[in-house]
Design brief:
This protein is mostly helical and 150 residues long. It is built from five helices and no strands. It has helices spanning 3-14, 20-31, 43-52, 69-91, 106-148. Helix 1 (3-14) crosses helix 2 (20-31) and helix 2 crosses helix 3 (43-52). It is elongated. The chain starts with a helix and ends with a helix.
Length: 150
């Protein structure tokens, strides 16, 4: 085979543009004894492909199926959980209507509403104090970073 054609095929090979037939030509060339001296470096590459392509896997693969005893126990456990859930749902007592936060006396209802709103106000005030702290942090951060940019 012509040396220029082999060099072109090598370029195509390394660009991943060769066909299977062209790759066979390269393998045949590099397995022959008359390889050009400047192309000797590619001989091991194509020799590796031809030698490794003929290898066979000869180890025995054990095909024993695993016994899955845990699957049976898992289904039994799931059944028990479902049964307990159903029994608990059926045997629960309904909540009495007196515990729903309704009041017959308007003054008692007013006092309870004031307690609830007072508690809500205290919690909102705690949140506002935290936001003020974040505002001070933001001011300090801006002052520090402005002074570093100069």
């Amino acid at each position: 085979m012509e040396l220029k054609a082999i060099e072109k095929l090598l370029d195509k090979y390394f660009e991943a543009e060769t066909s299977t037939a062209e790759e066979k030509e390269l393998k045949a060339y590099f397995s022959s004894p008359d390889v050009a001296p400047h192309l000797e470096q590619y001989r091991p590459l194509f020799g590796y492909f031809s030698g490794e392509g003929e290898q066979q896997f000869d180890k025995a693969i054990p095909l024993k199926p695993r016994k899955q005893h845990y699957v049976a126990w898992l289904s039994v456990a799931a059944s028990v959980v479902v049964m307990l859930g159903v029994v608990t749902f059926i045997n629960r007592e309904p909540a009495p209507s007196e515990e729903l936060g309704t009041y017959n006396d308007p003054e008692v209802a007013f006092r309870e509403t004031q307690k609830a709103l007072n508690m809500l106000s205290q919690n909102v005030n705690v949140g506002v104090a935290g936001v003020e702290y974040l505002g001070e942090y933001e001011k300090s951060k801006n002052t520090i970073f402005k002074s570093n940019k100069k």
